[in-house]
Amino acid sequence: MATVAVYNIEGKEVDKLELNDNVFGVEINEHLVHLAVVSQLANGRQGTQSAKTRSEVSGGGRKPWRQKGTGHARQGSTRSPQWTGGGVVFAPKPRDYSMKMNKREKQIAIKSALTSKVQDSKLIVVDEFKLDEIKTSKFAQILDNLKAPKALVVTKDKDEKVVLSARNIPTVKTTMTNSINVYDILKYDSLVITKDAVAAIEEVYA
Asked: How many helices (DSSP H) and strands (DSSP E) are in the chain?
């Protein structure tokens, strides 16, 4: 089992924690990690874009000039794609971009992402986030103490003080254990997670 240090919000080591190898020490499956990221980004697309083809734009029923003798190239309609106001070639239409992954694949992808953070020494375990008030500057100072300026902060339960304190920091995102995903884990340099959140993740994914 991998053992990591547990820090307090001052950035001082206060304990050690053994991580479950079934969650934080698996063989990394790069294919499923990639698939999970692509799937999440695809599922976030609305797919509502639309443009008209030459058969859908109005007008253009009459041939603009006769076929021969004008010196111009032959034209059949002013709504052809090469004309201003004409239709679009291969116009985009509303479509569903969603992709599906089964539950087992998602679990392997998340465990692979968590393992990569442990291997890169980018998993920072905190005993608890104890904030007396909603204060962005104080939260930024905590991350500075932990040497994690760009971080995904994971807590077991929703903590309004943590969420609101971190909201205005552009390089930080907060989430709960039941909402973690591969894309966010990989997007942020560090994964700052509370001790009880680690236990919750191990309980679900072990």
From this structure: 7, 6
